[in-house]
Automatic annotation (TrEMBL):
Keyword Ribosomal protein: no
The name this protein goes by in its record: Glutamate 5-kinase
Main location: cytoplasm
Taxonomic superkingdom: Bacteria
Species for this entry: Roseateles rivi
Domain PUA: 283-366
Family stated for the protein in its record: Belongs to the glutamate 5-kinase family.
Lineage: Bacteria, Pseudomonadati, Pseudomonadota, Betaproteobacteria, Burkholderiales
Function of the molecule: Catalyzes the transfer of a phosphate group to glutamate to form L-glutamate 5-phosphate.
EC number(s) stated in the UniProt entry for this protein: 2.7.2.11
Subcellular location(s) per record: Cytoplasm
Reactions catalysed, as given in the entry: L-glutamate + ATP = L-glutamyl 5-phosphate + ADP
Length: 374
């Protein structure tokens, strides 16, 4: 049986690295390890792939800089450590990526940012814009502003949410083990290696234990759940050892290293299903026959020029219906503009949006990737 190669054809990839790898088990930001991944990231970019990095390590690095031997219990102490350590992380990625000719950007996110539809769309647009400029975003949780309830808690979950956000084709989780075993290999040296499985298979959750070191947080269970979440938007996950030589390049060449957790649904179908299940209607726009034809027959985005009427009050990021001249619902999707803005730009060419509003977000009122035909 030949094994799947989730990265071989992946165009957009999210790579997550854990604290113990990034900080060499808490000894401090590991320049050699980060340099190694950055070299590979630059080569992937050279191949025309878009990569987003999700890196942990801020708390571990901050603790080292502050001279703290053990991890504090107090949340604000952890947040302070993260603020200190994030400087070192960002500096290291910036320096190493620049050495390989890459421009990097720092993005700090919280759960609340992605739960709020407007901020979700803003984060998505910013990340996609960075990628379109061939900039490599380096993401971490914004530890300064999070409390227990709204924390991602572990960066595996953040990696999966970013994969959903940018509609990545694949998520790579680099850790201190070769992949998933049938039980925690630190406690069960005879555990069997899992080469491939379907993401979301409940049997996987029984195999996975908690963190193996005092540095990492989530352990294998959060990686299994992250793979399930990433599969929700059609991305397959690979869990692999971060110190495996040329791990990213070899995965991209189709080598079967680590554990592949495969998404069973296609990317766009999964995302659209998610939209249908989660979002309620906030308003509607009527469109002319030309726009109706473009949407229904050609699967195109809805541009403001085709909009003849705007109904209800909605915000950027709300779901609205698209109606034809007879009032039949053709589609629904996420609006890039509020109802007030939509009224100002209706019937106008997209080139006039900036003049009408004083700024332009997107050329489309609803992008086709954010739209489901009825
Ligand atoms: N079934 C399993 N297979 C592999 N590793 C496991 C398993 N169950 C628990 N673990 C533990 O998970 C650890 C990796 O998680 P963690 O320490 O949080 O790393 P990271 O910092 O990379 O997120 C491994 O070192 C291992 O001890
Ligand atoms: N934002 C925290 C993330 C901690 C965390 O999730 O670590 P890990 O389980 O090693 O990915 C930090 O940078 O320290």
């Amino acid at each position: 049986m030949s094994l799947a190669q989730p990265l071989l054809k992946a165009r957009r990839i999210v790579v997550k690295v854990g604290s113990s790898l990034v900080t060499n088990e808490g000894r401090g930001v590991d320049a050699a390890a980060i340099g190694n991944w950055c070299r590979q990231l630059a080569e992937l970019a050279e191949q025309g792939r878009e990569v987003v990095m999700v890196s942990s390590g801020a708390i571990a690095e901050g603790m080292k800089r502050l001279g703290w031997a053990s991890r504090p219990q107090e949340l604000h102490e952890l947040q302070a450590a993260a603020a200190v350590g994030q400087m070192g992380l960002a500096q290291m990625y910036e320096t190493q990526l620049r050495a390989w000719g890459m421009t990097s950007a720092q993005v700090l996110l919280t759960h609340a940012d992605l739960a709020d539809r407007e901020r979700y769309l803003n984060a998505r647009s910013t990340l996609l814009t960075l990628l379109s400029h061939r900039v490599l975003p380096v993401i971490n949780e914004n530890d300064t502003v999070v409390n227990d309830e709204i924390k991602f808690g572990d960066n595996d979950t953040l990696g999966a949410l970013v994969a959903n956000l940018v509609e990545a084709d694949a998520l790579v989780i680099l850790t201190d083990q070769k992949g998933l075993y049938s039980a925690d290999p630190r406690k069960h040296p005879d555990a069997q290696f899992v080469h491939e499985a379907v993401a979301g298979d409940p049997a996987l959750e029984l195999m996975a234990g908690g963190a193996g070191s005092s540095i990492g947080r989530g352990g294998m269970i959060t990686k299994i759940l992250a793979a399930k979440r990433a599969a929700g938007s059609g991305a397959s996950t690979v869990i692999a050892w971060g110190r495996e030589p040329d791990v990213l390049l070899r995965l991209a060449r189709g080598e079967t290293i680590g554990t592949a957790l495969l998404a069973s649904t296609a990317k766009l179908a999964a995302r659209k299903q998610w939209m249908m299940d989660h979002l309620q209607l906030h308003g509607a726009v009527s469109v002319d026959a030309g726009a109706a034809e473009k949407l229904s027959r050609e699967g195109k985005s809805l541009l403001p020029i085709g909009v003849t009427d705007v109904q209800g009050e909605f915000h950027r990021g709300d779901v609205i219906a698209v109606l034809n001249a007879q009032g039949r619902e053709l589609a629904r999707g996420l609006s890039n503009y509020s109802s007030a803005e939509a009224r100002l730009i209706a019937r106008k060419p997209s080139a006039d949006i900036a003049r009408a509003l004083g700024y332009a977000a997107e050329a489309e009122l609803i992008h086709r990737d954010n739209m489901v035909l009825r």
